[in-house]
Amino acid sequence: MVQKANTIEELLQDCPVNSIIGDNLIRAWSKINSHKYLYILCSISGGSDSDDMLDIVYRCDKSNKVKYVWFDTGLEYSATKEHLKYLENKYDITIDSYKAIKPIPLSCKRYGQPFLSKQVSEFIQRLQKHNFQWEDEDFDTLYKKYPKCKSALEWWCGIKGNGSQFNITHNKWLKEFMIENPPTFKISNKCCQYAKKDVSHKLLREGVYGDGKIPFDLNIVGVRKAEGGARATAYKSCFDENDSGCDNYRPLFWYKDSDKIDYENSYDIEHSKCYTEYGLKRTGCAGCPFGRDFEYELEVIQKYEPKLYKAVNNIFGDSYEYTRKYREFVKNMNKK
């Protein structure tokens, strides 16, 4: 079993010669053992970044202040669930499971399926809500037709920063594709919100005992700047204070892939079968259409977890086909 450190000297005893890791451990020790924080929440996913974060947090938590939780989206690999049990045994901890407020199948059926990215799905959902006809008109003309859909129309018309995530040109030929091939199914990013985000906010709001009397004062998550994506780019540093609630700490924020390797080699970190046997590079909601390599992920799921394969195709099937059609459209347009 992994041993907690009683002093900062003990914590740094096996630290590799890596300034990022050394500075990170000192900072983690300071945050977790600060008298300011009495009730700390740490979200575990079963992914590789999460494994490294858990090891850091556990070693620093000399007073057992940290509560570990896992958000069960309803579309998780069996290998991930097995790995969570392994982590509980390795660190002698309990990782409490919290169900989605609305299961992913229900969210996708009611609000729509995810497509390309959270930001793209958000804007498309807003346009569909106003019965948008995927018209190739200027902003002023469209705004007169759809006066309550300004930000989504700005995205559609490419008004904000060319190539930014708030501009449709961020995804090459997407506007041209959607004009020729309007979506025939509902698109939304709500499944993420109801499966993880809202569950986390509810837990932070309700506190340790679920009655709001003792709220958490520090929230720890495994976001890395180097991984990119909306989560990583939303933050400027590893820590931010919240005057009206819980502070946020991201122990791995400055870790690059090489730092992860150094840490894992020094502290004997073992990842789930999703990585070591299945060959996946990411975990999370299985078969999520947001993943660039979802086709490869589907092959893996079909081979190792066939029941899950059937489920994800039933839930995300329309989005898979629409994405394939879009990618083929891009190839053809690039040849012209």
Main features:
336 residues; alpha/beta; Rossmann fold; 2 domains; 6-stranded mixed beta sheet; 7% strand
Mean pLDDT: 91
What is the CA-atom radius of gyration, in angstroms? Answer: 22 Å
The number of helical segments is 15
Q: What is the level 1 CATH name of the largest domain?
A: Alpha Beta
**Strand order in the sheet with the most strands:** 3-2-1-4-6-5
Written overview of the protein:
With 336 residues, the chain is α/β, with parallel strands linked by helices. Helix content is 49%, strand content 7%. The chain has 2 domains: 8-102 and 195-271, HUPs (Rossmann fold, 3-Layer(aba) Sandwich); 116-180, no CATH class. The protein contains 15 helices and 6 strands. Strands 3-2-1-4-6-5 form a 6-stranded mixed beta sheet, sandwiched between helices. Helix 5 crosses helix 10 (190-206), helix 6 (118-129) packs across helix 8 and helix 14 packs antiparallel against helix 15 (306-335). The chain is globular and about 65 Å long. The relative contact order is 0.16.
Could you outline the blueprint of secondary structure elements for this entry?
Elements: H1 8-11, H2 19-32, E1 40-43, H3 48-60, E2 66-72, H4 78-91, E3 95-99, H5 104-110, H6 118-129, H7 139-145, H8 150-157, H9 174-180, H10 190-206, E4 218-220, H11 229-233, E5 239-240, E6 247-249, H12 257-267, H13 273-276, H14 294-304, H15 306-335
Parallel strand pairs: 1-2, 1-4, 2-3, 4-6
Antiparallel strand pairs: 5-6
Helix pairs in contact: 5-10, 6-8, 14-15
